[in-house]
Specification:
The structure holds 2 protein chains of 2 kinds.
Chain A: H1 4-30, H2 37-55, H3 63-87, H4 92-121, E1 136-137, E2 140-141, H5 142-164, H6 166-176, H7 178-183, H8 188-210, H9 220-235, H10 240-265, H11 275-287, H12 291-294, H13 297-312
Antiparallel strand pairs in A: 1-2
Helix pairs in contact in A: 1-5, 1-8, 1-9, 1-10, 2-3, 2-4, 2-8, 2-9, 3-4, 3-8, 5-6, 6-8, 9-10, 9-11
Chain B: E1 2-11, E2 14-24, E3 29-33, H1 40-48, E4 52-60, E5 63-64, H2 70-75, E6 78-81, H3 93-100, H4 106-119, H5 136-149, E7 154-158, H6 166-183, E8 186-191, H7 194-200, E9 203-208, E10 211-217, H8 218-222, H9 227-230
Parallel strand pairs in B: 3-8, 3-9, 6-7, 7-8
Antiparallel strand pairs in B: 1-2, 1-4, 4-5, 9-10
The chains are: A mainly alpha, B alpha/beta.
């Protein structure tokens, strides 16, 4: 159905969209650039891997567990670190550095977990190819079809939650004007906690999906954190939808872009794959620092139409 | 009654208000006037738990509010309409009213929404529009309507006349007087447009550089030979 490079690209892009959406959500609610997204994503992968290793069956059935575990990690991060710092009116840098510390703790726990799994159960958790356990669907890997469906489902559920429920609307209100929201009787503490539940869950789900297209290792999340932020920045860091779209574009551009570059200039270019999302991030920050969400699309489309008419006449 | 005793407050370590003593009697409009930077908004922020209270007491009907989080203060019946950012621009009018009545049950919310829309019929036509598309006057009306959604005992109104045309300011002030006269709501009104506010006020305080310089009847301050000219820019009193 899809050529292998596109199939892998769709899985990779879907995973990045989930993680970038989570980063954006946490930033607009709590002003926190969450570096612990790396550890949360890796944990997401290991939860699916552990359950699949011990219980077997269809590996997709364990993805919700990854989401829930990511939410738990988000709750711990909020209650243990983020909330006390927010109450002390900590700066953005302090908030960001605290998540880096949390990420190092998560990484250490993951390393210990891998050792435990190796010694006790004779598993090989330090290099896992989850795609080997995937099945075929319409002549292609199931992941290439299911991953975008997961990303679209999460986006739809998030949209319905934010626009159709009272608590979701209160989240949007708090994001826009936390003081007025609080003065209206909305407990911003609950809103921030919910954003960590969703953000952590999306990170872990993204990590679990990511492992279907790349080798799962204890540092998988750490190697992808720049791409996650590149997606969030391309999205504009102002809109959750922008973050999800930004992540998808960065992921697809990186995966598909490097394939075409390798075909055109040679396989040596594969070693510079990481440069593509960083390049997107630099171009975004230089040309349209408010990202996709900051572009006035209707104005842009009108300008393009006008320019086309001018060319024709 | 809202009582403030020996209040020292500000932001983080910066003290802005010094030894403030203030009483807001029930079902009256208490006006706080003063020049720019006097600390008027900080006073309201201190009551709402947005600013830091270093010393003193804020008491509402016997309950101490000092440094309570804003949502708890709101739950006790104090409704705050800030000067800036007093509506959720990205939310529709209906969602704004829903958020303002966040603490109400579904049925109460519906009844209260109908009630405030009857009070401000101009808002009825825009109910599905985003608040960010409203004019300045319409936004103030919505802000007051949102304040009323919370079934308040006390309303804190911060410079609602800023940037409004004189005719709209007059209408807004009339609406505030109606809140007291028809709904019996206690109001603490902070205003820089002193004349209009003092005309509808019962009691008044003059706040200068974080200290109370005058307290007494609103009409007395309006006609004060020196203070009204010196601090409030009222040259002639009709």
């Amino acid at each position: 159905m899809f050529p292998p490079w596109l199939a892998g690209g769709l899985v990779y892009a879907s995973a990045l969209s989930l993680t970038a959406g989570g980063i954006t959500l946490l930033y607009i609610t709590t002003r926190t650039f969450n570096f612990a997204h790396a550890g949360m994503a890796t944990f997401g992968f290991y939860i699916t891997y552990i359950f699949y290793s011990f219980r077997g069956g269809n590996l997709y059935q364990y993805l919700p567990l990854s989401f829930l575990f990511g939410s738990l990690l988000g709750i711990i991060c909020y209650i243990g670190l983020n909330r006390p710092l927010l109450r002390r009116q900590a700066s953005i840098v302090t908030l960001m550095m605290s998540t880096l510390g949390y990420d190092l703790i998560l990484l250490s726990i993951i390393q210990m977990l891998c050792d435990y799994l190796s010694y006790t159960f004779k598993l090989y958790p330090r290099r896992v190819t989850m795609s080997a356990y995937d099945f075929k669907m319409f002549g292609t890997s199931a992941a290439s079809i299911i991953s975008p469906i997961i990303a679209i489902t999460i986006l739809t559920l998030l949209h319905l939650f934010l626009t159709r429920t009272k608590f979701g609307t209160s989240m949007r209100a708090t994001i826009e004007n936390p003081i007025l929201a609080s003065a209206s009787g909305i407990n911003s503490d609950k809103v921030y906690l919910m954003s960590w539940v969703i953000g952590g869950g999306m990170a872990a789900l993204g990590g679990a999906v990511m492992s279907l297209t790349m080798t799962g290792t204890p540092v998988m999340g750490m190697t992808l954190i720049a791409q996650m932020f590149a997606g969030a920045i391309l999205g504009g860091l102002e809109s959750i939808y922008g973050g999800i779209l930004g992540g998808f574009i960065v992921g697809l551009a990186e995966y598909v872009g490097i394939y075409y570059l390798a075909v055109m200039v040679g396989p040596w270019v594969l070693g510079y794959r990481m440069a593509l999302p960083l390049l997107i991030m630099v171009i975004t920050l230089l040309l349209f620092p408010r990202g996709l969400a900051g572009i006035q699309w209707s104005y842009l489309m009108k300008s393009i139409k006008r320019a086309r008419k001018g060319v024709k006449s | 009654m809202l009582n403030i005793k020996n209040l020292y407050s500000g932001y983080i370590k910066l003290k802005i208000l010094f030894d403030i003593n203030l009483e807001v009697p029930t079902r009256e409009i208490t006006v706080v006037v003063g020049p720019n930077g006097a600390g008027k908004t900080t006073l309201l922020n201190s009551i709402m738990g947005i600013a830091t209270v270093f010393a003193g007491e804020i008491i509402l009907d016997g309950i101490r509010l000092k440094n309570a989080p804003p949502y708890k203060v709101a739950q006790l019946g104090i409704s705050y309409v800030p000067q800036m950012g007093n509506v959720f621009a990205d939310l529709t009018l209906r969602e704004n009213l829903m958020m303002a009545g966040y603490m109400l049950s579904k049925e109460e919310l519906k009844n209260k929404t109908d009630q405030v829309l009857d009070m401000f019929p101009v808002l009825k036509g825009f109910i599905q529009r985003k608040a960010g598309t409203l004019s300045g006057g319409e936004r103030r009306m919505l802000a007051i309507a949102m304040g009323l959604m919370r079934k308040p005992k006390v309303m804190l109104l911060d410079e609602l006349s800023t940037d409004l045309a004189p005719l709209i300011t007059k209408r807004v002030m009339e609406s505030i007087a109606r809140l007291r006269d028809e709904l019996g709501i206690t109001i603490l009104l902070v205003e820089q447009m002193a004349k209009r506010a003092l005309e509808i006020g019962d009691k008044a305080y003059l706040l200068v550089s974080g200290e109370i310089k005058y307290s007494g009847k609103a009409s007395d301050l309006l006609h004060h030979p020196e203070l009204s000219k010196l601090y409030l820019g009222i040259k002639e009193v009709e």
